[in-house]
Amino acid sequence: MKFKFLATSLAVSLALSGCAIEQNQTSQAVTQQQTNTTGEGVFSQDYLLEELENGLRVMVVKTDYPDVVSLQIPVSVGSRNETQAGKTGFAHFFEHMMFKGSEKFPEAVYSSILKNSGVDNRAYTTNDYTNYHLNFSKQHLDKVLELEADIFQNLTYTEEQFRTEAQTVKGEYLKNNASPVRKLLSAVREEAFEQHTYKHTTMGFFKDIEAMPDQMAYGKEFFAKFYKPEYVSLVIVGDVDPKATMAMVKKHWGAWKKGDYVADIKAEPTQQAPKYSHQQNPGLPGHWLLVSYKGTAWEPAKKDRAALDLLSQLYFSNNSDLYQELVVDKQIASQMFSYNPETKDPGLLHVFVKVEKADDLAKVRDAINRTYAQARTELVDSQKLSDLKSNLKYSFINGLDSSQAIAATLASYMHFERDPRVINQLYKTSDEITAEDIKAIANKYFVDNARTTVTMSALDKAPNFEQEVDLNALVAKLEQAPQAAAFKVLDKTNSSPLIDVNFLFNTGAAADPQGKKGLGALTAAMLAQGGSQSTSYKDIKQALYPLAGSFGYQIDKEMLSFQGRIHKDNAAKWYALVSDQLLNPGFREDDFKRLKKELIDGIKSGLKASNDEELGKEVLYSALYKGHPYESYNYGDISDLEALTLDDVKTFYNTELTQSKLTLGLIGAVPEKLKTTMLADLAGLPKGEQSRLSIPDAPELKGHHATIVEKSAQSTAVSFGFPIDTIRSSEDWTALWLVRSYFGEHRSSNSFLYERIRETRGMNYGDYAYIEYFPRGMFQTKPDANLGRSEQIFQVWLRPLRSNNDAHFATRTALFELDKLIKNGMSEDDFEATRNFLINFVPQMVASQNRQLGYALDSEFYNTDSFVSYVTNKLKTLTVKDVNRVIKDNLQTDNIHYVFITGDGADMQKRLAPEQTSPMVYNTDKPAELVAEDKVIADYKLAIPAKNIAVIAVDKVFK
Fold first, then answer.
1. How far apart are CA 302 and CA 428, in angstroms?
2. DSSP tag of 548
3. How far apart are CA 789 and CA 818, in angstroms?
4. How far apart are CA 867 and CA 65, in angstroms?
5. Backbone phi, then psi, for 81, in 5-degree steps?
6. What CA–CA distance (Å, rounded) separates 687 from 484?
7. 535-554 pLDDT per residue, tens
């Protein structure tokens, strides 16, 4: 796991850490101006920036990406501002409440307008700001600005909505609590801070969340203090006219009245001694260590911030000597990564490590602190430092590949000083850092009294932690002939300075031989992360670093994709390195052992222990495809992986990675000379005969079945579904895709299931439906490309419920609504709204260059027109009659397989087999018609015979 300095923020994905700014401070008003920064710094877009009289600051950036606009609204309020005891978590809570509408635009109206306009509407909260981000077609800009302005100025909600959402937030907390990384961050912050509000996470203290339903009066007070224009910025990026856009903003937002509140945030006193705590986590596989030091505040003109980030990359990234020692060479650790959130006030700098043996915790702790001591005593290699700065520069530029990416990056910095120039200032400061600066700042911050250490495991204590580290006593060292082509080429080269290359082979996990499940994944890992015959993987990574080049893989049943990105200036050097890995793999025994271990750990710890939601979906696929090439998990079965040999990998490579199965995808300004070299090199692969795998029909599913996976879990995840004959190339696919969107659009509050289970009843975090494989759904909002399959299932995913009873009820609710959909079909209004949403939304699915290439390759696989035109043209000719026919032809509830991931499998089995009633209980009054419906649902028949219910311990899954 790797976090890029400046370009990305773990705070967004974890919603645990960040940095806030009080926007009540006086500042010079920014007059309307066109600032041309082309060629000056890493952020070089022209932009229009103005601060309105009420303190609202507005930034408009016109881009050349057609049609799509991204509106980001960072509000400078996060958990840092929650200064009142017993009232934590409200910044995050209002992220939820801001979707409830206003008097002018009630929730249903608000949602309907956004859905019909195809608006992708989401939000996230960090420690110091809350960001609302909307992506849509440019013709809807004025309406979106009007809607959001009214919500921000006139948010309206009932007590019932407030209490229901508080219940949802509690469920979200329980869901998040399954992650050991989140638990570690929460524990270290509570231990490290005495007075500052960084002591609690964005979610808040659990006791405060439990009390939240009764805090409506305080909620209104909190909103009134912070949702004021001086705390808010608008970042509008896309295919817009800047001056006309600014006029729209003034029309809708100009009358908003300024506030006068400033939070009194206590300064954290200097830490007087090192701190340590151990967190027992029953059932946790492996053992975790977190070493954290107090860091610096956000001051981009000073060297401290930039130097600490550079130091972290030099000494603790995947390219560091310590990573090579612990993860690659000695293989003591299976994971190691650093995280240095940018914070308004001094925060924490973290290094996380996961080990398999408890006795290794102390060894790794000592190695980390020995490395900090090393940073205090040596001067880093100047070339290494220069390469790092080059990598960071190009990484940042490479990430600005869509209007949404540009807007999201700007939003993450606008909350500091509400001026985009801080980005270039920080990079300018970074450019000035010397080896002497790194050493001096290491000596300033990495001292014993600034350290807090946390361990976490199933044990009641970590062994050998009695003797603390003494940094002053440590001493450290640095180590220092072409054939005719038989493959396809999809050439979409253009003038973009960013080049994306995709080596897509029509093979994958479905080609794994019996007893060797995971062989395709391990082979892919060896090619992408195992070095070449002439160069070790460590040396390849070091060579790629100054180029900011990437190269990785994705494996599915019928597709194995090796993808890379590079700036055109560095394309030839990048290709020389990665092509050597792909065409002349090193196949070293030590790399083989390391990568096999990582795959096994990924199944044990990443899937089975820490991701109940993904586990449920993968178990469902396995259950539906018993005896079929799709049965096994893409990354294999543990026992099969353990038995694989290096010779097995070499055989798979030689038989499956052939020209006949290869399509080379190119996009960006690929030099013609390099293109010629690529074609000649790839012609050296074996030609092969088969162009793609031959996949049989899915096994016939008869009746209702359930698989209950029992593991240590505080909530219950649910997935259910059945095979379907309709795939993307089928005549009815677009109509079924529309039905899926209406019933359960992924991570969208517009979908029907989401509204019935999460919004109305506050039961969980979300409820979605799919007709194509969608892995990693808890981490992303849009599906990845290159997951083409000859067989698909219809699937419903219910995000974790608070209890088995709730899971039973929610499953019944989903079945109840699915039965109604099949019986009654969609209404004309729902059909039109969903179609409008998809027509406007589908361009966003290919809004970046690498996604354009990926979806174009998928269209080759399915033999369809380009994705956007294919879907859009089909949607425009659809009628509600067509859609309702497709519902009856494809959807049914006679044959279903259910999967439950739960902490009490026997209890779940007892509920299912005798059709035990599952009453719904609320913490607030609900409408009579809903209560009446709940009584029907509480006894709705899932009809699963006892003989068709299997309870499996999690350690037996994918064994």
1. 10
2. T
3. 25
4. 17
5. -85, 0
6. 9
7. 999 999 999 999 999 999 99
Task: Give the per-residue pLDDT at 849.
Answer: 94
Taking a C-beta distance cutoff of 8 angstroms, is the pair 600, 285 a contact? Answer: no
> Under 8 Å CB-to-CB from 80, ≥6 apart: which residues?
18, 19, 20, 127, 128, 197, 198, 265, 344, 345
Can you give the length of the chain in residues? 959
Q: Mutual orientation of helices 421-432 and 382-399 as an angle, nearest 10°?
A: 160
pLDDT at 415 exceeding the cut of 60: yes
CA distances from 687 to 131, 487, 665 (A): 51, 8, 18
Mean pLDDT of 664-669: 97
213 in Cβ contact with 166 (< 8 Å): yes
* C-alpha span between 503 and 517 (Å, rounded): 23
Cα 547 off chain centre by: 25
What is the radius of gyration, based on Cα positions, of the chain?
27
Which residues on adjacent β-strands are paired with residue 560? 505, 555
**Do 16 and 187 form a contact (C-beta atoms < 8 A)?**
no
Taking phi first (over 0 means left), then psi (-120 to 50 degrees means alpha), and beta for anything else, what does residue 556 get? beta
Output the CA torsion 759→762→764→767 (10° steps). -30
Distance CA 276, CA 192 (A): 9
SS3 state of residue 118: coil
Distance between CA atoms of 141 and 69, rounded to whole angstroms?
Answer: 8
Kindly give the pairing relationship between strand 498-505 and strand 662-668: antiparallel
Q: 667: which DSSP letter?
A: E
pLDDT of residue 19: 31
pLDDT in tens, 242-280: 999 999 999 999 999 999 999 999 999 999 999 999 999
More confident residue, 22 or 412: 412
CA distances from 479 to 391, 476, 542 (A): 21, 10, 14
DSSP-derived pairing of the beta strands 767-770 and 792-801: antiparallel
Confidence label for 608 from pLDDT (cuts 50, 70 and 90): very high
Tell me: the pLDDT tens digits for 639-661? 999 999 999 999 999 999 999 99
Give the three-state DSSP class for 716.
strand
Ramachandran sector of residue 825 (left: φ over 0; alpha: ψ -120 to 50; beta: rest): left
User: Would you say 47 and 61 are in contact if contact means Cβ atoms under 8 Å apart?
Assistant: yes
Sheet with 47-51, edge to edge strand ranges: 33-35, 47-51, 57-62, 233-238, 68-75, 130-137, 120-125
Instruction: Determine what percent of the chain falls in helix, strand and coil, rounding each to the nearest 5.
Output: 45, 15, 35
Report the distance separating Cα 935 and Cα 921, nearest Å.
11
Mean pLDDT, rounded, of the chain: 91
Q: What percent of the chain has pLDDT over 90?
A: 84
Q: Tell me if residue 949 falls in helix, strand or coil.
A: strand
Specify the amino acid at residue 807: A
Separation of CA 110 from chain center:
26
List, in order, residues 6 or more apart from 295 with CB less than 8 Å away: 308, 340, 343, 346, 347, 348, 349, 445
* Torsions phi, psi for 494 (to 5 deg): -150, -160
pLDDT, residue 328, reads 87
DSSP classification of residue 472 = G
Helix 382-399 vs helix 435-445: crossing angle, to nearest 10 = 90
Full-model pTM:
0.85
Return the amino acid letter for 295. Answer: G
- When pLDDT is cut at 50, 70 and 90, the band that residue 24 belongs to is very low
Domains observed in the chain: 23-253 (3.30.830.10), 275-399+414-473 (3.30.830.10), 488-682 (3.30.830.10), 704-956 (3.30.830.10)
152, 130 Cβ separation under 8 angstroms:
no
